[in-house]
Amino acid sequence: MLSTATKHSAEESEVEPMEVTESPGDIYNISNSTQLSINCSRDSAVSRVVFPVLYTVLFILGLFLNSLAVWVFFQIPSKSNFIVYLKNIVVADVIMTLTFPFKILRDSKLGPSYLKVFVCQVSSVVFYFTMYISIIFFGLISIDRYQKTINPFDRAKPLNLVGVKLLSGAIWLVMFSISLPNMILTKKRHESRSFKCADLKTEFGLTWHEVVNYTCQIIFWGNLTIVTFCYILIAKELYKSYARTRSSNQKGRMTMKVNVFLVLVVFFICFVPFHFARVPYTMSQTTLFRCSLETALFHLKETTLWLSSLNSLLDPLIYFFLCSSFRASLFKTLNLSTLSRPSVGTAEQRHDTENTHLGDSNV
Ligand SMILES: Nc1ncnc2c1ncn2[C@@H]1O[C@H](COP(=O)(O)OP(=O)(O)O)[C@@H](O)[C@H]1O
């Protein structure tokens, strides 16, 4: 196995006939400098047709749902931490959705060749940046929902809200700062038409890419732990509450369960497969692997990445099922006045009221 620097210096030097000795584990020992990965084509009908079609579906539906969500959210005042977090996610989702057309054009080979460079340099980096923003806010939402479960009558204090807005800004800034070098350091010129993003990186750029990927793994697994832990505690509280009231309404109980676990389900479906696939894939970008293994890892990464992109489509479901202010405002926007009429007071009062008892879907 070769390190980042070794792979890079191997790729940068003059191409000479290479001697490759296969070792167990499908990884090559390179005993001569070469551009092995250049000869390993990823081109296939799946990457040229299937994924562009799947991303087109995501783009059309995602743009519609997220634009609607933005429209609805920006009529709701940011009066709770929960709403501030959801607004951050919706902005991240809109930006992520806007990166899809570039990927579609690049992968389908319908776009000009400089688009490939643009995708590696800008749009893919923006995609990952927004993905981790969503992941971090999912973690914060889980903590907030747990706090709301144990202290239902707690209202967000203005000072708290300022703190939460500052925290949100800081998260965007920090994530942008670690992503920016991935744009700047993707600047090597490439003669071959079939280059990979890693081929455009400077030596330090490839190291930075590797470091950011492992940092993002920590961010993901940390947030997954937070989300899982908080929702286990929430479920426990809900169970205690139902046991106390001895609710006999089975249907209501089922709805509550499904809604409570929506965040967890979305998180698992969208992000867990990608983060399992990402580690060996990043290794294949910085270490010389056998071509068949590198290609398999690439396809696995692309498949699981599509699941992560699906998140931008599933998030609006979370807003709808977990945020009553969103529902009320959506029905009002769509002129469904009967549905938008809150059962208790105004939309705002209803939101606050909904947060005050455990059996509500707002948890
Ligand atoms: N977690 C991340 N955060 C920010 N940028 C990233 C992240 N992961 C990858 N990138 C950047 O996105 C671009 C595409 O990366 P990647 O998907 O690994 O390449 P490829 O499309 O060749 O498989 C690269 O410039 C890379 O550095």
Automatic annotation (TrEMBL):
Topology relative to the membrane: Multi-pass membrane protein
GO CC, one annotated term: plasma membrane
Localisation: Cell membrane
Domain of life: Eukaryota
Alphabetized UniProt keyword annotations: Cell membrane, G-protein coupled receptor, Glycoprotein, Membrane, Receptor, Transducer, Transmembrane, Transmembrane helix
Residue segments, region Disordered: 1-24
One Pfam assignment: 7tm_1
GO biological process assignments: blood coagulation; G protein-coupled receptor signaling pathway; microglial cell activation; regulation of primitive erythrocyte differentiation
GO molecular function: G protein-coupled purinergic nucleotide receptor activity
Residues in the signal sequence: none
Sequence ranges assigned to domain G-protein coupled receptors family 1 profile in this UniProt record: 65-319
InterPro entries: GPCR_Rhodpsn, GPCR_Rhodpsn_7TM, P2Y12_rcpt
Transmembrane segments: 53-74, 86-105, 125-143, 164-185, 218-239, 260-283
PANTHER family: P2Y PURINOCEPTOR 12, P2Y PURINOCEPTOR-RELATED G-PROTEIN COUPLED RECEPTOR
Entry protein name: Purinergic receptor P2Y12
